[in-house]
Write a structure and sequence with these properties.
mainly alpha; 2 domains; 7 helices
Length: about 180
């Protein structure tokens, strides 16, 4: 069981992720993605009358909700079976974060940025609520999330997915180098 702890090598995970696209195409040209599940969940729970949520979610999203349930179940089972290793952040990343005033790095997310206490500050609201809104809006506007476009859309040679992936990377670089340093100053 100790050999399963930590990240799996790229030469194991890469082919497994890559095998998803042909498998989905074999079972009926289904696209791979996670962000559309929020729309499906809203279509289940939101009262009818809103055009965006008025569709047959069982036919269009039932399999995708099963995928989401499988992701959560697999994550839970693996955490129970092999534990949850806390990734180590490189020293250069710790130094870069310290230059921005972030010193409470334990795991991947600094508690000073993502916590209930942080949500009571303007900076926390911008980072947590604004960031969540931006991600959700961006995924809806782009017609899917980064995993769906980068894995499924690019493999299916969809030009819109190439544009979306370029936009995701450009947005990530802009947020990292331009926006985040100004928010943390």
């Amino acid at each position: 069981m100790d050999s399963l702890r930590g990240p799996w090598p790229w030469y194991v995970v890469g082919p497994l992720v890559g095998a998803m696209v042909p498998l989905l195409l074999l079972i009926g040209n289904r696209l791979f993605g996670v962000s559309s599940n929020l729309r499906h969940l809203c279509a289940i729970t939101v009262p009818s009358g809103i055009e965006y949520f008025s569709y047959d979610w069982k036919r269009d999203g039932g399999w995708n909700l099963a995928l989401l349930a499988g992701i959560f179940t697999g994550g839970l089972l693996s955490a129970l079976a092999i534990g949850v290793p806390v990734p180590d952040i490189s020293e250069s990343t710790r130094t870069a974060l310290a230059s921005l005033g972030i010193t409470d790095v334990a795991g991947l997310v600094p508690a000073s940025l993502i916590s209930w206490e942080a949500l009571t500050t303007w900076r926390g609201v911008v980072l947590i609520v604004g960031g969540g809104f931006a991600i959700g809006f961006g995924a809806a506007w782009a017609g899917g999330c980064s995993s769906g476009h980068a894995i499924s859309g690019l493999a299916d040679l969809q030009p819109a997915s190439l544009i979306a992936v370029i936009g995701f990377f450009a947005g990530g670089l802009a947020a990292t180098w331009l926006i985040l340093p100004r928010l943390l100053a």
